[in-house]
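User: Please predict the structure of the protein below. I'd like the answer in structure-token form so I can feed it into my own downstream comparison script.

Assistant: Understood. Taking the following sequence of 164 residues as input:
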Amino acid sequence: MNYFLKLRFAVWAVVILSVIILATVGTMLYFMIANKPERQGEGSQRMEHFFKKELGFSKEQETKAIEFRHQFFQNMGSIFTSLEQKRIAIINELNKPQPDTVILNQIADDYGVLHAQLKRETVRQLLRLRTICTPEQVKKLNSLNEKIIGPEGMHRKSPNHPRH
């Protein structure tokens, strides 16, 4: 084979491989984007199932609870983003050769403020849910509050909060 024939073959091989790679990447992106709403839908279905099963919500109550949930996550989006940024900032500062404790303390304080906002919004969400509950459902919701809010300090064991 002469030089130009080899070059032409190499160019076509690169073109074909590039098309294959682009098709693969495009397919992956398509399925990643296409599956996001399904995952969110599954989460909503789990939450709907939870309230229907645990609290015995009617269809009307489920609809209202979904509205509350959407409102909750709209309010929480920026807080979740900020918490993640603060977490990364702490890690980055800790990974420096000489971490600055003043900076770390300030980031930790900022993180604490954001966490307090998160807890306040969670409490507001639970109070909103109470408004659509019957008195019997409120009793059930009250018994689920610890499970919904979650135990703090999961890294430590406390006699008041046994771990299973």
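That's the full token string. Residues 3-55 form the longest helix (53 residues).
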